[in-house]
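Extended Data, panel c. Modelled sequence:
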Amino acid sequence: MAIPPRIWDIHVHFPRNPQKPDDDPQVTLDHLAERLRETGVVKAGLLCPTAYPGRPGRGDGLTHERCIEMAQKHADLFVPHAHLDPEFTTYERMHQLHAMGYRALKIIGTRHEYDWKDYFPVYRAAEELDMPILFHCGVIGGGLDWLNRHPARDPASAKRMREQEEAARKAASGEGPEPTGALARRFGPRESSATYMRPFHLETIANRFPTLKIIGAHLGGTGNYDEAASVARWRRWVYFDMSGGRTIERHAVERGLIGKEFAIEKLIFGSDCPADEVHEHVERFVGIFDQLGLTDAEKDQIWYRNAAELFGLEESVWAEE
């Protein structure tokens, strides 16, 4: 595989292993940085979690202060995104996060629609501070894959399902502890809804905050592609990342999303996968871009330039009459 000359990976989660909560997070972060660099990533949007009042388990005990302290070891690579809940984040806290060195935000799993007015102070601060926001769109994945790895045909999935059901049974009967951290977020009850995270809510935000830079994840999420394409088409600062795995990648090709429904200038590469899978993820997109016959300039737009323009590292180039 010919590695692209430069990649901006907009969707990189701070690495945590819920099965090994005592692992040194700096070691796992260093491993992530090494894998990213080997794959040609020169900038990575590092999504740094934290816990919120009333939202136990989120963040796995890491604070925004601690996350950015560790990320500074790789300051040339990581662009820190503060993973936050706008319900529990004040306008003043936004300025504190920016002063720490956070340059963008990540929002997912809210208890109201993204365009709920009580979230506006966070969006107003982000607009003033020029901090792009990456919004999750669609269903939250990460559990068992009932399409591609159904327990009826995949032994690893069957084993995992039985373990989860036994843990849930023990928790319900008082025999075992309640799930915490990443396990609670992934398999426990949620107060959010995929309908709260639809791309059309980003259109409302874009109208209310016309210079706020917005990135919708996963091409809008399965089932939301038309919504996402429409918002990207008509709102200048709304972009979408291409993370989400093989199903979304297949849809992008089969449904003509790349360069046909979404302008090339509105798409940004994102991996959203474990460190050791980033290389494979990039390989698949190299093949997809070749299959679609994209030019080198168009590939560079998606791999790097669109994100670089969004964050001010590259100047936008406009057509001349």
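The mean pLDDT is 90. This feature is highlighted in the accompanying rendering.
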